[in-house]
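User: Reviewer 2 asked us to show a designed sequence for the structure in our supplementary figure. I'm pasting the structure tokens here. Could you produce the per-position amino acids so we can include them in the response letter?
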């Protein structure tokens, strides 16, 4: 049972909720804060003083006063009118992350929601009642209004559910400010980003494995990975990647066989792997830091401050931090793909590898892995397009009241869509590197890389004659996505 207290939700815990359906509960302190903030809202409502979102309209209609008898209708209409999302629904793990994040933010006690409403959201999450949330329709302005509105509608008995239309809970009747409290925030884009960040961190380690296999198969030098080189340029991600590469190639008979070959330097795709992979790791770390901060941040508007019974309008819902984090993540992932594709090209080019063209002994009659590289090139080109930043764009909305928007949801969706493409690019490199290692027999690679090679060969046999590479690539993708390949190397990679 993971406790939601508004301040201690990590990305790893979020992943357990999202992907493993681990149950959650509110902390006692969070419940007390929620009650206290609600009391402030009730007192302001009774006073009749205009307060944005409590007894006024929304956005460009903020100056329209709402009579007391229409306050409940105001909140329900807010949810209905803002549920304008389109396109395919977010996957169930992302929806679960979205629900957990919104509950955690509400638990901070700045939203003024009723405790029973928050407890209903938690109960739905634990009961695996998953709203259907269309992926598109948010510009990350007053947060992710459309996605959160689709979620909130299910609390009042409307909206759509994912797996079935089972509704085990009676519909709630919203009080003043509750509709706004449910939809003001960046939790949709944060949910997408958070899960993509975790996948990206795993891919950074897989990229080190793929690079190490390629370096060995191409008979490259391990000297560029020496710690003293990277200590002189103290980028943490670079040092971690270099340490991984050094450990992965250590003990290779292939490496020892060319110790005195006279070659002075390798190509950048080999020699600079720690620098490029390290920069990608720094991008991933930046995105992870902002995602975890946002997971525990109050993003409501207006915000309720219990200490002086104030309700204050602000702009914490603006998704700029998430947009920049997602764009940075996308660019970092693109770096992993572009350098991997270059290593694959060298493996398949006889003049560079010293191996048979396209890694087949019968080149000419056979095309070997020629088209596998073409697939990697196609995917890499697509990744480059997707890595163009969303945060540099803005389209004013709400009659100009929202005159600078973040595009955080678009940025997060793009970053998440890059993840499976990078898996495929790395899978092609690993496919080629394993074939190259077989062609170098009887020379053997290092023990960790031999274990990775063996894991691949349980799914993908040596290429003796042409066959469709698609299945082979997909088998390696599965080894990557299930982290079986990471575990196979037997080294605790940084």
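Assistant: Here is a per-position design you can include in the supplement:
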């Amino acid at each position: 049972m993971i406790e939601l207290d508004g301040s201690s939700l990590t990305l790893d815990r979020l992943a357990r909720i999202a992907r493993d359906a681990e149950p959650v509960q509110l902390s006692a302190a969070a419940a007390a804060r929620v009650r206290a903030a609600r009391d402030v809202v009730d007192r302001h409502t009774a006073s009749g003083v205009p307060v944005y979102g409590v007894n006024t309209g929304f956005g460009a209609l903020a100056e329209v006063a709402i009579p007391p008898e229409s306050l409940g209708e105001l909140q329900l209409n807010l949810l209905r009118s803002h549920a304008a999302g389109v396109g395919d629904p977010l996957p169930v793990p992302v929806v679960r992350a979205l629900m957990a994040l919104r509950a955690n933010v509400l638990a901070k006690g700045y939203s003024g929601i009723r405790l029973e409403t928050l407890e209903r959201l938690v109960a739905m999450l634990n009961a695996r009642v998953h709203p259907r949330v269309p992926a598109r329709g948010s510009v990350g302005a007053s947060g992710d209004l459309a996605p959160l509105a689709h979620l909130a509608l299910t609390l009042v008995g409307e909206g759509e559910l994912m797996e079935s239309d089972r509704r085990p809970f009676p519909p709630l009747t919203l009080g003043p400010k509750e509709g706004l409290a449910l939809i003001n925030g960046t939790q949709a884009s944060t949910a997408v980003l958070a899960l993509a960040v975790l996948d990206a961190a795993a891919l950074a380690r897989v990229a080190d494995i793929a690079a190490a296999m390629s370096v060995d198969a191409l008979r490259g030098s391990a000297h560029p990975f020496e710690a003293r080189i990277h200590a002189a340029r103290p980028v943490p991600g670079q040092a971690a990647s270099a340490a991984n590469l050094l450990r992965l190639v250590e003990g290779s008979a292939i490496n020892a066989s060319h110790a005195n070959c006279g070659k002075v330097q390798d190509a950048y795709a080999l020699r600079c792997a720690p620098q490029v992979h390290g920069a990608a790791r720094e991008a991933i770390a930046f995105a992870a830091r902002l995602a975890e901060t946002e997971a525990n941040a109050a993003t409501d508007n207006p915000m309720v401050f219990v200490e002086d019974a104030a309700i204050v309008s602000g702009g914490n819902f603006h998704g700029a931090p998430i947009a920049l984090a997602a764009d940075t993540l996308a660019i970092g992932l693109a770096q992993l793909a572009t350098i991997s594709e270059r290593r694959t090209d060298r493996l398949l080019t006889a003049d560079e590898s010293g191996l048979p063209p396209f890694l087949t002994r019968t080149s000419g009659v056979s095309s070997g892995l020629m088209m596998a590289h073409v697939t990697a090139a196609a995917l890499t080109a697509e990744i480059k397009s997707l890595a163009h930043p969303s945060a540099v764009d803005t389209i004013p909305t709400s009659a100009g009241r929202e005159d600078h928007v973040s595009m955080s949801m678009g940025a997060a969706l793009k970053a998440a869509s890059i993840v499976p493409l990078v898996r495929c690019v790395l899978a092609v490199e690993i496919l080629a590197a394993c074939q190259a290692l077989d062609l170098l027999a009887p020379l053997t690679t290092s023990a960790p890389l031999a274990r990775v090679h063996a894991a691949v060969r349980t799914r993908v046999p040596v290429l003796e004659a042409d066959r469709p590479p698609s299945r082979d690539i997909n088998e390696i993708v599965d080894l990557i996505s299930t982290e079986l390949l990471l575990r196979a190397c037997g080294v605790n990679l940084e």
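For the response letter, you might also mention the following. The CA atoms of residues 199 and 419 lie 7 Å apart. The chain has two domains: 2-185, 193-300+316-488.
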